[in-house]
Structure formats: structure tokens, C-alpha cells
Inverse folding.
């Protein structure tokens, strides 16, 4: 046998039984190993078709849990009642007056006729004056300078201040914030 001189010849005799005191033995694969290997093939043959065709999956479990949660927390989600729970409630209106005096007067004036912010007592509503919309306006703010108050006031005080706002004496004419030339009825 010719040997490439660059090669380190490690096994001059492939059948040599021991090298540096380390012996190679030719044992059979242990039975437990062969058995677990065979077992894994059986499991795969069952599991893969089951996973693919039975419809069972983590995604399905997740969807089922989301559905349960939707049902359980449906009430909690309904954060915004669709109508003001404090309408006409004298104590709440008094509390709302306090909120209005500290939080809203600077921009909407004490009588609600408007200054930096638009009039809250004229018939014109840019964003609408349903309870839901008014709540959203105060909770989340509006782009042209109305700050969001939700974090500071919380829902109770928002409803209170809105209940108070309703009691401000109304004006019939379009006030601050209404588009030029707008008349009630338009
Ligand atoms: C920093 C000034 C400022 C303060 C304070 C402020 N607002 Fe406003 N508000 C505005 C401005 C400006 C607008 C107009 C926003 C727009 O047109 O996008 C507005 C709009 C509104 C609207 C909508 C009016 C419409 O025509 O749809 C309501 C309702 C309102 N404010 C209520 C309140 C209440 C209640 C408070 C107190 C909790 C308050 N605002 C505090 C400046 C203010």
C-alpha cells in the first residue's frame, strides 16, 4: 500500500484491537436502545396522522380558551355604558361641577361657551353629542387640542362631569367652534 506522505497514518492495521490502551469492541446495540428506537417510529406513525387529521392542535385549544374568556369577561369589557348613569343625579352633578371647575373651565369657560375649546352649550357638535361619543371625547381626547382625561379622571368622574355639562344653560345660536355660517338645523 502506498501512502500519501501528507497523511498521518493512524491505522496501519485496521484490525488492531487496542491502541494507546483503548480497545474497540464490536458489541451488539443494547436491546433497550433498539426497542426505544422502534417505539419512537410507532409513536410517530400514530402521532403525525393524528395531529394532522384529527383537528386537535394548540391553535384549537387557544381558540377555545379565547372563546371562554370572551364569555367570562364580556361584562368587564362593557366599560362604557351606552347612556350616562348619572343623568339627573343631583349628587353626581355636584361632583361633576367640581371636576368641571378644576379640569375644563380653562378651555371651555365656566358657562361652557368656549374659549380655546369649542362651546359646549350651542347646538353644534363637531363629534356628536350622544352619551357614547361625549364619553369618548373626554376619555380619549380629540386631535385639535382636546386632551385625553381618561387616565386622570376615570370613568365615574367623566360621567359626572358630562352630567354636569348637560345642566349648563344652553344657547340657541352657534357658538365658538362651529363652522362659519353654520345654523342650527343644518
Ligand atoms: C387644554 C384645553 C382643554 C381642556 C382643559 C378641555 N378641553 Fe374639551 N376641547 C378642547 C378643544 C381644543 C376641543 C376641540 C377638539 C377638536 O376639534 O378636535 C375640545 C372639544 C371638546 C368636546 C367636543 C365638542 C364637540 O363639538 O364635539 C367636548 C365634549 C369637550 N371638549 C369637553 C371637555 C370636558 C368635559 C373637559 C374637562 C374634563 C374638557 N373638554 C377639557 C380643549 C380643552
Amino acid at each position: 500500500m502506498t501512502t500519501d506522505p501528507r497523511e498521518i497514518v493512524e491505522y496501519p492495521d485496521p484490525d488492531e484491537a487496542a491502541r494507546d490502551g483503548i480497545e474497540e469492541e464490536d458489541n451488539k446495540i443494547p436491546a433497550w436502545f433498539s426497542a426505544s428506537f422502534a417505539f419512537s417510529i410507532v409513536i410517530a406513525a400514530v402521532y403525525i396522522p393524528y395531529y394532522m387529521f384529527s383537528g386537535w392542535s394548540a391553535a384549537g385549544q387557544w381558540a377555545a380558551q379565547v372563546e371562554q374568556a370572551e364569555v367570562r369577561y364580556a361584562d368587564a369589557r362593557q366599560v362604557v355604558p351606552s347612556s350616562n348613569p348619572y343623568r339627573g343625579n343631583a349628587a353626581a352633578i355636584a361632583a361633576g361641577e367640581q371636576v368641571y371647575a378644576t379640569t375644563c373651565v380653562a378651555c371651555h369657560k365656566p358657562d361652557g361657551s368656549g374659549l380655546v375649546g369649542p362651546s359646549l352649550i350651542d347646538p353644534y357638535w363637531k363629534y356628536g353629542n350622544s352619551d357614547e361619543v361625549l364619553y369618548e371625547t373626554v376619555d380619549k381626547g380629540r386631535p385639535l387640542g382636546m386632551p385625553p382625561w381618561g387616565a386622570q379622571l376615570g370613568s365615574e368622574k367623566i360621567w359626572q362631569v358630562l352630567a354636569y355639562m348637560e345642566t349648563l344653560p344652553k344657547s340657541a345660536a352657534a357658538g365658538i367652534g362651529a363652522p362659519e355660517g353654520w345654523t342650527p338645523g343644518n
